[in-house]
Amino acid sequence: MALNPDFIGRTYPSSQPYLVGREKIREFASAICDFNPVYHDLAAAQELGYPDLVAPPTFAFTFVFASSTVVIMDPDLGLDYTKVVHGEESFVYSRPVVAGDELVVTNTIENIRAAAGNDMITVKSSVSTTSGELVVVTTMVIVARGTDSQ
Amino acid sequence: MTTTLKYADVEVGTKLPALTVPIQRLTLIKYAGASGDFNIIHWNERFATSVGLPNVIAHGMFTMASAIRVVTDWVGDPGAVVEYGVRFTRPVPVPDDGVGALLEISGEVTELLDARRVRVTLTAASAGQTVLGKAQAVVQLA
Question: Do B88 and A85 touch (CB under 8 A)?
Fold first, then answer.
């Protein structure tokens, strides 16, 4: 059964604040084999004018994806998580994420459309500090395979 | 944002230094731990092949994170990346054969934009096949 297009435009309650940790940034940067000093060395980050270690461009996806389970697991939406693959991802930054940021994520279903027997769902996630400063907006397209043929 | 790379010094066609990223099973396990993405297809060959994949596959977000390194290595300051997006077009199988996979990434300036920004188009390939589509970044230069 195709997903219900009535969910387009639905915004879910914001996530609990995610505190960006210095060691988490170092761990993530090491895991992507990226040893740019601004991800590891506080003095190098400060030299570029940042208050603390800078997170690599895709770091935000880690906690954005965790927050998006509110959409993916929404029983009313009826997505079969075992059939979901990641189709597209994009980021539009106001500034880089830095250690010490306390960030909340607000997820909105931007679009649902059927293509070639699959459902494609676009989830837009706004990431802001707890004081309301917009940091990054991410857009994820997830593909639910074969939902039309069920 | 502090980069010393000048808008006036680049043109459409300027190539960024290419990067080759070796991926082994350990790479995927580290990325799973660091990112919190423990999807079984990224570490269990028995499961991955049972759902029709050729082998354990790399996290798409690992490939995405690797591809933008061509840009951040070029500009130095990752804050110069103002937009970044990709499509995941093909999986990157990572066999447990002591070699793993190689991800080959290149980038080229494809458009000069306003406000001293440029569009960079990235190519990511493994085993001779592209694995990302529409991989583009908008980069703020000095």
Answer: yes
Contacts of A64 in chain B (CB under 8 A): none
Within 8 A of B62 by CB-CB distance, chain A residues are 32
CA A136 to chain centre: 9
DSSP strand pairing (A84-93 vs A134-144): antiparallel
Q: Is residue A127 over pLDDT 90?
A: yes
Do B81 and A93 make contact, defined as CB atoms within 8 angstroms?
yes
Select the residue of A30, A57, A139 nearest B78 (Cβ to Cβ).
A57
Ordered by start, the domain boundaries in chain A are 5-149
Angle between helices B60-67 and B25-35 (to 10 degrees): 90
Is residue A21 within 8 angstroms of chain B, CB to CB? no
With 90 as the cut, is the pLDDT of residue B57 above it?
A: yes
Residue A114 confidence (pLDDT): 87
The pLDDT-based confidence of A83 (bands split at 50, 70, 90) is: confident
CA–CA min distance A51, chain B (Å): 12
Question: CA A98 to CA A102: how far, in whole Å?
Answer: 9
Q: What is the pLDDT of residues B82-93, one digit of tens each?
A: 999 999 999 999
B82, containing H or E segment: strand B81-88
Which pLDDT band, with edges at 50, 70 and 90, does A62 fall under? Answer: very high
B21 vs A contacts (CB less than 8 Å)? 33
Tell me if the domain spanning A5-149 has CATH number 3.10.129.10: yes
Reported ipTM: the value is 0.97
Q: What confidence score (pLDDT) does residue B14 get?
A: 98
- DSSP one-letter string for A103-131: EEEEEEEEEEEEETTEEEEEEEEEEEETT
Neighbours of B114 (CB within 10 A): 5
Task: Give the integer Cα–Cα distance in Å for A91 and B85.
Answer: 6
